[in-house]
Amino acid sequence: MLMLAGIGSPKNALAEVRLPHVFGSHMVFQREKPLVVWGWAMPGETVSVRLGPVSQNALANDRGEWKVVLPALAAGGPYTLNVSGSSAIEYDDVMIGEVWLCSGQSNMEMGIGHGNHAQSEIAAANHPGIRLLMVANRWTPLPQSDLAGTWKVCTPATVAEDGWQGFSAVGYFFGRELNAELGVTIGLIESDWGGTRIESWTPPEGFAAVPALKQEYEQVQAGDPRTPLHQRQLQATLDQYAQWLGAARQAMGARAIVPPVPAYPDALLAPHDLQQATALYNGMIHPLEPFALRGAIWYQGEANLGDGMRYADRMKALVTGWRTLWNEGDFPFYFVQIAPYNYGGNPETEAELWAAQTAAAAAIPNAGMAVVNDIGNLKDIHPTNKQDVGHRLALLALANTYGQKGLVVSGPTFKSLRIEGETMRVQFDHADGGLASRDGKPLNWFEIIDANEGGFVKADARIDGDGVVLSAAGVKHPAAMRFAWSGLAEPNLMNAAGLSAEAFRAGDLPRRDWLGMHVPEAKDYEVVYDLDLTKLGVSIKYDVDHHQNLHRPFDRIAYFVELQNADWTTQDLYVSLDAFTDDPGRIGVPALGTGARFQQNVTNLDVYSNVKGIVTGTHMNGGNIEFWPNNYAPPNSANVPNASPDVFDFGDQPADPDDGYGSMQVHNHDQRQTLFAINHWREGAHADIGIGNQPTNNPDWTFAGNAAGYRAMRLQVLVHYR
Q: 142, 168, 269, 597 — which has fewest CB within 10 A?
């Protein structure tokens, strides 16, 4: 067992009987739940534990571990906790009340001294009925049995010391309201660390409980030396080393070259970084188990911003894992929806995470989410108004955990959508007291999309009872809507209680067959390849690949590129041209194994596109292609008309190595235009993809690295038979 000696030690620091530092003077035990007390002593030693009117004995096992379970007690105190064996420990001023775990990343960690009205809030923080335990930051490869921290009575001095300018502001304001409303002592355990991912806080049991995280669970198992999977893989590795050792000795005897030493598999390494799965759970959560809790509050998600809906699975794993190990049933879990902030890049990334948080709140039993999109700061990832955050979490607890009646705990939430001609009607739940605009201005951040044309456009929104009626000029056939679907959204829709509506989307997004609608000749072509460009990588894996089934000669080749932007608008381009090869294996993405290397003019271009500025038409000459897997440079060595020797455009020069950057480009050099470009496909989300000339920098999109900016991407390659 690992002990952190000298931190928060009991009165007799040399005692053989020891307790972890989650126990101490001024601590709070959870009322109305069996109270687990545990620690260490000499093997075989009898340990007696007394707390006020209840007591229990335990016998230390052969590892010196002991545990007692005291009967549940009603709120009260102060009591003295006495633990005795060959030596004695005494903790005084022990209260029975409500215990909450406060965890997450920096917005939970941010102390009271960094928030709004810090000086006056600290000065007023004289609350004997609130007790604070701040767990020291620590990540470890394996679960730990103790922590560094000391229980303190909440005073202006103690609430402002340690951590990030004091105790968690969110936790403090949450606990202050519970103490005032319930009239019992509140124990707050702060265990958080800024900038950390949710996986690091999750125990193995959590990953095991979520099928979608099977791969993560197997990775955790492989890195844990206590698991059968680790033992099997380690044995296989040791066998490899044994074979190498024999070969090395033989080579040494023959004075030959010794073969390279096999690399130790990374998969077998225990967590060796703050952000790796289970690392923070091991060091900052496991030492708290099985200390009885009422529940947990959580503020995290910024570090998992790009996870999208996968974050819902990660939240399920976290909560299920904690609940499994505490073995107290589905204890309450209330969390904060991350606040709007200008992260840069695609602002819908945050909206996707919000959707995951909303889904998690609905899927996880006894959970709730506090919406804070009206009290954030787009220029500060750490909004300083933590009073309202703590208040909204307290509302959830008071209503759902403590059964207080008449509380409004949620802003308006989506109920239903109905299309009424050229308008849409959105009905809301939790429209308590009626819907309203926070600032008295027209409702903002509503958008709708037409079934036939265009992307999402700003909607005029009118409150009608418990609903909102949406319309927009030019949208005759509304199909779907969304609300506050941007990380920059600070919407003004609220209910009479002043609680903000959360982001959501509804309706059926239109599925438009642009090719069939706008390219008459496409009906005479046959699809050879169909590729979801979001799957780009070192290996090209087509969704449809018919090239081995083509046994008839073809005289024309066509390419159709479809790119869906963040606002759901779609860019499309179709170009057909006289065949430049008779090998169907060389007309797709020119990856290394295809043998495709073409830099040549092409004739009879037929171009159709909805992208502004693209020159469209039929039977156009003046085209050229640049298909190769190589690196390339700007010099116009092929003397392509109108090309520049100084920038990457439609006249570049292939270079070594063959398995390099990669170019798949069709151009209309007569018009000085790139029609489409798919470059650097091996980089997946960082590939270069575009239709038309890139507005800035290289016209052929080289070094754009922009693939992740599209919602969806598709390439079709078609042929026309002679």
A: 269
Q: Are 104 and 46 in contact (CB under 8 A)?
A: no
Q: How far apart are CA 33 and CA 22, in angstroms?
A: 17
The dihedral through the CA atoms of 255, 256, 260, 261 has a sign that is: negative
The label of the residue with tokens 């190595």 reads 657
pLDDT tens track for 662-704:
999 999 999 999 999 999 999 999 999 999 999 999 999 999 9
Location of structure tokens 């900052």:
284
Tens of pLDDT, residue by residue over 153-167, are: 999 999 999 999 999
Neighbour count for residue 456 (Cβ, 10 Å)? 23
Give the E-state strand segments of 486-643 in sequence order.
493-495, 504-507, 526-532, 544-545, 554-564, 570-578, 598-602, 605-609, 617-620, 623-628, 631-633
CA dist 688 and 703 (Å) reads 6
Separation in Å, CA 655 to CA 320, 514, 535, 635: 54, 37, 26, 11
pLDDT score at 519: 94
- Residue 721 φ/ψ, nearest 5 degrees: -80, 150
Residue 12 has pLDDT above 70, yes or no: no
- Alpha carbons 116 and 509: distance in angstroms, whole number: 42
DSSP H or E stretch at residue 232? helix 228-253
* Structural domains of the chain in order of their starting residue, each with its CATH number: 225-262 (no CATH), 413-507 (2.60.40), 514-721 (no CATH)
Give pTM, 2 decimals: 0.81
pLDDT attached to residue 14 = 40
Tell me the torsion sign for CA atoms 265, 270, 272, 276.
positive
Q: Return the DSSP state at 439.
A: T
